[in-house]
Each structure stands twice: as C-alpha cells, then as structure tokens.
C-alpha cells in the first residue's frame, strides 16, 4: 500500500524559523485545540440499547438514534470551535465557508436521521 501524501492530523512538523514550538495547534485560538477543549469528556459509549422490554428492531432503532445524536453533538462542537476560531484567530487558521456549510448540512442530516429513528412505527 502506498503511503498517503497527506500528513497525519496529529503529526509533528518542523518548527518554522523563529518559532520555539514545533507542534501544530499550540495556539489556543486555532480550531483543533478549541475543538479538543470542547470535546473533553464527551464520547458515545458504543454499548447496545440497555432496555430489554422492547422488540429487538426497536432497540436497534433507538441505538441508531443515540449514535446519530452523539454524532450531532460532535458536529455542533466542531461548528462552535470553528466559530470561536473565526472570531479570535487569523483568517488562515480558520475553516472556510464551504467546510462550515458542510458541517451545517451534516447537522441537518443527523437531526433528520435521529428524528426518523424515534418515530413510532405502527
């Protein structure tokens, strides 16, 4: 398999001339550090739906809705980090308009999916 031409998100890079720190994202106003601060302690547990007094299909629907809502929280945290970065950082450190629009569309899709999973099927 060929190695990727893109660096790993967490890869360290050489420090630019005159920069003492060599790790990207050390500026607390940039996107990734802001996102990590928002996300501390927030994660889906990945466990099956705990209630046993319902049909297996409904348990799957509720677990699917739970995953969609956990994804929605993550996307909204990314949007919040992007907005805070836009307000405080240099323009080259922010997400572009197309990326922000993609995150908003992901929010709409995840919300619609979770709502569909939670509908009672007759």
Provide a quick synopsis of the model.
The chain has 122 residues and is mainly alpha-helical. The protein has a domain at 31-38 and 52-118.
Mean pLDDT: 75
Total strand segments: 0
Oligomer: single chain
Estimated helix fraction: 40-55%
Low-confidence stretches: 17-23
Shape: elongated
Structural class: mainly alpha
SS field, number of helical segments: 3
Q: Please summarize the sheet with the most strands.
A: none
Portion in strands: under 5%
End-to-end Cα distance, whole Å, is 49 Å
Task: Kindly provide the radius of gyration, computed on alpha-carbon positions and rounded to a whole number of angstroms.
Answer: 19 Å
Order of helices and strands: HHH
Task: Note down, in words, how this protein is organized.
The protein is 52% helix and 0% strand. By secondary structure, it is mainly α. It has a domain at 31-38 and 52-118. Helix 1 packs across helix 2 (56-88) and helix 2 packs antiparallel against helix 3 (97-118). The longest helix has 33 residues, at 56-88.
Index terms:
single chain, 122 residues, mainly alpha, 52% helix, elongated
Could you give the topology of this structure?
Layout: H1 31-39, H2 56-88, H3 97-118
């Amino acid at each position: 398999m060929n190695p990727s031409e893109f660096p790993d998100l967490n890869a360290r890079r050489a420090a630019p001339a005159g920069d003492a720190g060599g790790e990207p994202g050390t500026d607390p106003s940039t996107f990734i550090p802001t996102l990590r601060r928002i996300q501390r302690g927030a994660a889906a547990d990945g466990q099956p739906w705990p209630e046993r007094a319902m049909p297996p299909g409904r348990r799957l629907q509720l677990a699917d809705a739970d995953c969609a809502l956990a994804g929605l929280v993550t996307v909204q945290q990314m949007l919040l980090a992007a907005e805070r970065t836009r307000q405080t950082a240099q323009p080259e450190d922010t997400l572009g308009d197309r990326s922000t629009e993609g995150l908003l569309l992901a929010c709409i899709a995840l919300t619609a999916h979770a709502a569909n999973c939670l509908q009672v099927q007759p």
